[in-house]
Design a protein that fits this description.
By secondary structure, the protein is an alpha+beta fold. It contains 5 helices and 7 strands. Helices cover 28% and strands 33% of the residues. The chain starts with a strand and ends with a strand. A 7-stranded mixed β-sheet has the order 2-3-4-5-6-1-7, sandwiched between helices. It has a domain of 131 residues: Aminopeptidase (3-Layer(aba) Sandwich), CATH 3.40.630.30.
Length: 192
């Protein structure tokens, strides 16, 4: 194992520029048929962990944050996030897909929110690879933004690894601005 530094962007968004949609239900924001967005509740903690694991286990972020590459690590992370005093449940959403064969609801996407120094801090927005490109990440992010606003926050931020170009493009398309570059050190197998 060797210490590797991952270059990340801190991206920011001013929620005062963000208007609530006319729909009375935030869960209706741009979700295709067969998918549902579910507001956070404690009994969904395990589903959030499964969605997080399926979203990140093969991604670069599992190197930056090794807990994302293990089921038990994702569950432990979800427990840690939701037990914090600055957890923002209104900004925490789950995306599920109804499997047509089994009829089961499968957790395939998640986003969590924290309040940090007066900012909404987005944690671990992820969609399982086979469900990407369908607007689900945008819908999760919009619902989280509305949740942060409902909690009285005026600005939000997130961090994204610079090599994750698809995520960077998504955030820029939604109006996030690159504010600064940060580096995250991680021990990576095979790095010297």
């Amino acid at each position: 194992m060797g210490l590797t530094y991952f270059k990340r962007f801190r991206m920011e968004f001013d929620l005062q520029r963000f208007s609530k949609p006319s729909s009375s239900s935030l869960a209706d924001c741009q979700v295709r048929a067969g998918y549902d967005l579910i507001a956070y509740s404690p009994e969904l903690l395990g589903d959030h962990a499964i969605a997080k694991f399926n979203s990140f286990r093969t991604e670069m972020d599992a190197n930056v944050f090794p807990c994302l590459g293990r089921r038990e690590g994702c569950l432990r992370l979800m427990r840690e996030i939701t037990s914090r005093s600055n957890f923002v449940p209104e900004a925490t959403w789950l995306c599920r897909f109804r499997d047509e064969v089994s009829g089961r609801l499968l957790p395939i996407g998640t986003i969590q929110g924290l309040e940090v120094d007066g900012w909404g801090a987005i944690q671990n927005l992820g969609i399982a690879p086979e469900h990407r490109g369908k607007g689900l990440g945008s819908a999760l992010l919009m619902n989280a933004a509305f949740g942060f606003r409902a909690a009285g926050l005026k600005k939000i931020h997130l961090e994204v690894t610079t090599d994750n170009t698809a995520a960077v493009r998504l955030y820029e398309r939604l109006g996030f601005q690159k504010a600064r570059v940060v580096y995250k050190a991680a021990n990576v197998e095979g790095a010297c």
